[in-house]
Amino acid sequence: MLILVAVLVVTGTIAINLIAYRHAYAMIHFTAGNPRTQRPEKLNFSQKLGVLLHGVNLPRPKTLRPPTDLDPSTKSLRIDCANGIKLGAWYCSGKNTDQLVILFHGYGAEKSATIPEAKAFLDMGFSVLLVDFRGSGESSESYTTVGFKEADDVAAAVNYAKEHLPHRRIILYGQSMGAAAILRAVHSCGVHPDAIIVEAVFDNMLNTVCHRFEAMRLPSFPCAELLVFWGGCQAGFNGFKHNPVEYAASVECPILFMHGESDPRAHIDEARRVFDAVHVPKQFKEFPKLRHEPPVIRFPREWKDVVGGFLKAAENKTVLKTGDGTFSHYPTEFAILTR
């Protein structure tokens, strides 16, 4: 009897690890065919069972819109990254040629997903650079690491802008995975922007994986932990150390957080943890009843007011550094929690 129990335990352990390995592979490797798996909330029972057994299908994100959908003067660029990786990008000069906003998309998306925000920035006079992460759009590769290695892409885009584009100030904007990549780039890649705007940021890799199980109304333990473990092994990093809440302490410039009150992928209390970890002038904007979606679509005027006010304050800041490296004085627009 004990031998049978031991065999069942070992067999079950092997089986669940094999399934987790397959799931992790599917989540970070883009495919060439078949439609994308629907959101977990929309799956019926048989579809959920299929996803549990075979993993999700995530087609490689394609850029189907032309750059002129942003603006007739938009130019396509190629950015060299490490290890021969090439990044696709669109550049459009605004009225304020002194400031450039570099935009980074979220998981399973590509640069055209940030067109609404880029248009809003152009309307406010800023120049914009929309970047495809590795594996997406017009970039090379066919994988994602949910913001970990994409931090190198952020660094490459910033370096390109400094070397080839005529702008004195650089602002980084990122959605979800893009937000995590920005914070990691600041923490690990020596990136020093003049201001940062992050939307729908998650606090750590494990929590964001857990929420996908919650969306299907399934227990996350131990599958989420195994997914993070095997995904990290496949991608060459420790998934349990991919934590924006830890990266945030390295931010040295003004930063704006924007988050949906009802975000099921990155809970708002988790975003506040990342916010609390920042030790420089910061601002948090909560959008009521908003889920994991761009607030500029549902709250265009409010989004513009918040972003415009933040960037104006960031540009006109008065900086007095203290001995411990913190800022002792900033305009009153900063260091506040807005709702």
Just give the CATH class of the largest domain.
Answer: Alpha Beta
- The N- and C-terminal alpha carbons lie at a distance of 60 Å
The CATH topology label of the largest domain is Rossmann fold
Ranges where pLDDT stays below 50 over 5 or more residues in a row are: 318-333, 335-339
Helix content: 25-40%
The helix/strand order is HHEEEHEHEHEHHHEHEHHE
List the total number of helices. Answer: 11
Shape: globular
Percent in strands: 15-25%
CATH architecture label of the largest domain: 3-Layer(aba) Sandwich
Rg result: 21 Å
Please provide a written account of the structure:
The protein has 339 residues and is an alpha/beta fold. Helices cover 39% and strands 16% of the residues. Helix 1 crosses helix 7 (223-235), helix 4 crosses helix 5 (177-188) and helix 6 packs across helix 7 (223-235). It is globular, with a radius of gyration of 21 Å. The longest helix has 27 residues, at 2-28. It has helices spanning 2-28, 45-54, 115-123, 150-164, 177-188, 205-215, 223-235, 244-247, 268-277, 295-298, 300-315, and strands at residues 75-80, 86-92, 96-104, 126-131, 169-175, 195-199, 255-260, 282-287, 336-338. The chain has two domains: 1-59 and 205-241, no CATH class; 67-204 and 243-338, Alpha/Beta hydrolase fold, catalytic domain (Rossmann fold, 3-Layer(aba) Sandwich). A nine-stranded mixed beta sheet has the order 1-2-4-3-5-6-7-8-9, with helices on both faces. The protein contains eleven helices and nine strands.
Give the secondary structure arrangement, pairings included.
Elements: H1 2-28, H2 45-54, E1 75-80, E2 86-92, E3 96-104, H3 115-123, E4 126-131, H4 150-164, E5 169-175, H5 177-188, E6 195-199, H6 205-215, H7 223-235, H8 244-247, E7 255-260, H9 268-277, E8 282-287, H10 295-298, H11 300-315, E9 336-338
Parallel strand pairs: 3-4, 3-5, 5-6, 6-7, 7-8, 8-9
Antiparallel strand pairs: 1-2, 2-4
